[in-house]
Design goal:
The protein is mainly alpha-helical. The chain has a single domain (about 10-150), classed as Arc Repressor Mutant, subunit A (Orthogonal Bundle), CATH 1.10.10. It has seven helices and two strands; from the N terminus they run αααααββαα. It has helices at about 5-15, 25-45, 50-60, 65-75, 80-90, 110-135, 140-150; strands at about 95-100, 105-110. A two-stranded antiparallel sheet has the order 1-2. A hairpin with a 7-residue loop joins strand 1 (about 95-100) and strand 2. The protein is elongated.
């Protein structure tokens, strides 16, 4: 047996014990790629990434919130949030302004253009969320969301469907 064959056999023995379709890490990664692909299919014509959309929603729900707080709400690191918000500001979707209480703090607001963008995207965003759940029953979708929130230790104050 040649050296490549021995190595191949050893690698096969190790990896043969690993079932990718039973690996939570692998399934979550694939789920993320599936979600991003569905986002592009449903919302790709709007020139706004899924991260930008999540940030736009978080800012809309929390007008005047700090850049740091919004980043924490959506679980993005400081550098990613800062870069993404800069791009969103250049597109005219948000306004970043220095806090009147603390000059070190940047506060965020959705602009009129950002609001119009959100209005235009509503039907497609609804279709996107429906498409993600299309292969699940309503009960399965509720259970999946509940289990993901549990895994991520996210508290929900009101029942979420």
């Amino acid at each position: 047996m040649g050296s490549h064959q021995k190595l191949d056999q050893a690698v096969t023995e190790i990896t043969g014990q690993y079932d990718l379709l039973d690996s939570l890490a692998h399934l979550i990664r694939r789920g993320h790629f599936f979600s991003e692909s569905m986002y592009t299919s449903n919302l790709g014509t709007f020139d706004i990434t899924s991260r930008q959309m999540v940030l736009l929603i978080a800012i809309g729900q929390n007008p005047g919130a700090s850049q740091k707080a919004v980043g924490e709400m959506v679980a993005l690191d400081v550098n990613t949030v800062s870069d993404t918000l800069r791009r969103m500001e250049r597109k005219g979707l948000i306004l970043r302004e220095t806090s009147k209480l603390d000059a070190r703090t940047i506060c965020l607001r959705v602009t009129e253009k950002g609001f119009r963008q959100m209005q235009a995207m509503q039907p497609a965003l609804q279709s996107y969320n429906e498409a993600l759940q299309d292969r699940l029953t309503e009960e399965e979708a509720v259970q999946l969301k509940r289990l993901i929130r549990k895994m991520l230790q996210l508290e929900v104050t009101a029942p979420a469907a």
